[in-house]
Amino acid sequence: MFLSDPAVSHTPTRWQAFTAAPHRMLFFLGVCQAVLVMIWWTVELFGRLGLWRLPPTVLPPAVVHQYLMLYGLFPFFVFGFLFTVYPRWMSAPVVPPARYVPVFLLLAGGVGLFYPGLFTSLAVLALAVGLMFAGWVMALYSLVRVYRAARNRCTHERILNAALAAGAAGIAVYLLGMLKGEALFFNLARELGLWLFLVPVLFSVGHRMIPFFSEAVLPHYTLVRPAWSLPLMGVCVMGHAATELSGFPEWRFVFDLPLGLAALYHSWAWGLRRSFEARMLAMLHIAFAWLAFALLLYALQSLALLAGEADLLGRAPLHALGIGFAGGLMVAMVSRVTLGHSGRPLVADRLTWYGFLGLNGVALGRVLTEFSPHAGLWNAVAAAGWLACLLPWALRYAPVYLRSRADGRPG
């Protein structure tokens, strides 16, 4: 009678549930950032319209927005996902908490210092970026350890390792730009973060997982995973970055057009139309389809420059890529992984589905604002639209990471 109830004594604490799997901690941080980075940017954009007085920042807001979107949002989901799937993909030992908990603490510490540092001191801001760089390097080291101990290594992991290394270099370059105050470093950090880190990671993960998920859902599905597409992607993203940094954007089409056509082929071969049989699967396919659209816009922009025309598209290709492709794939993949690894049905509820569709509307609207005479107003509206779509999504999924699995299994 003096023994405690086993069901009670073995109920995990909130911290134990939170640290039970790497995706829990890092997805939680990413979900929070999906809201916080856009709250700041929305306030900034509406402030430029004269609605309120903006406090000064130690770095130009556009440079800060660049950093937060490339290095202060998507990487948390990337690391949480790869810590989970690397051991499964390669039949390797799992990543222990002793490795992923410090990564979370360093990244969270960097995020926590970043916002006050932005308004107070370059030294504090540099410390925040330094902590995030340390967390990134520790995460990369842990993933490379898994890779080296693995039995079944393939091209996906090699490209992902290289992309993560490029991302680490991008943060280091950004930090150097902060200390030296030179735009060259910020431009290099942008190209490293977008074209050598984020696009290769998302393309590689999509190449690996979208046909796999489709085969599991759609009957009589033919799995297509071309071996040529990953090397082509690698050449094209490096070419895009090189032409941009060298001052020859009119020649980007040499790299953007082939990759855009390849992405279009993948959407067709993977069954974009059939994917609508299951909303959760359709979200992945729709998000990936934005890559082809964005790259074809980049190619059109490049060809117009080559023909001597003015830059007619502005940042339309960038936001098709950043909101439509990267943002959409973030919502789709995180929703699926969160539900699957929490013991819940792999079904997109109305909030998830309509939030995702709303984000697609935001992406399309942000593309169209480049052609509006009131671009400043509509840019602010697009930022508020991101929040309107992703705040309910964040409130829906963030608590899941703090609770034990619904099916009682560990993890």
Query: What would you report as the Rg, rounded to the nearest angstrom?
Result: 21 Å
Largest sheet: none
What's the number of extended β-strand segments?
Answer: 0
Mean pLDDT: 94
Helix content: over 70%
Structural class: mainly alpha
What assembly state would you assign to the polypeptide chains in this entry?
single chain
Work out the helix count.
Answer: 15
Percent strand equals under 5%
Can you walk through the features of this model?
- This protein is mostly helical and 411 residues long.
- It contains 15 helices and no strands.
- It has helices at 6-9, 14-18, 22-48, 61-71, 74-90, 97-120, 122-149, 155-180, 183-217, 229-245, 253-269, 279-306, 316-340, 350-368, 375-397.
- α3 (22-48) packs parallel to α6, α7 packs antiparallel against α8 (155-180) and α11 (253-269) packs antiparallel against α12 (279-306).
- The longest helix is centred in the middle third of the chain and has 35 residues, at 183-217.
- The radius of gyration is 21 Å and the shape is globular.
- The model is unreliable at 1-9 (pLDDT under 50).
Write a compact overview of the structure shown.
With 411 residues, this protein is mostly helical.
Topology overview:
Layout: H1 6-9, H2 14-18, H3 22-48, H4 61-71, H5 74-90, H6 97-120, H7 122-149, H8 155-180, H9 183-217, H10 229-245, H11 253-269, H12 279-306, H13 316-340, H14 350-368, H15 375-397
Helix pairs in contact: 3-5, 3-6, 3-15, 4-9, 5-7, 6-7, 7-8, 8-9, 9-10, 9-12, 10-11, 11-12, 12-13, 13-14, 14-15
Keywords:
single chain, globular, disordered N terminus, mainly alpha, 15 helices, 411 residues
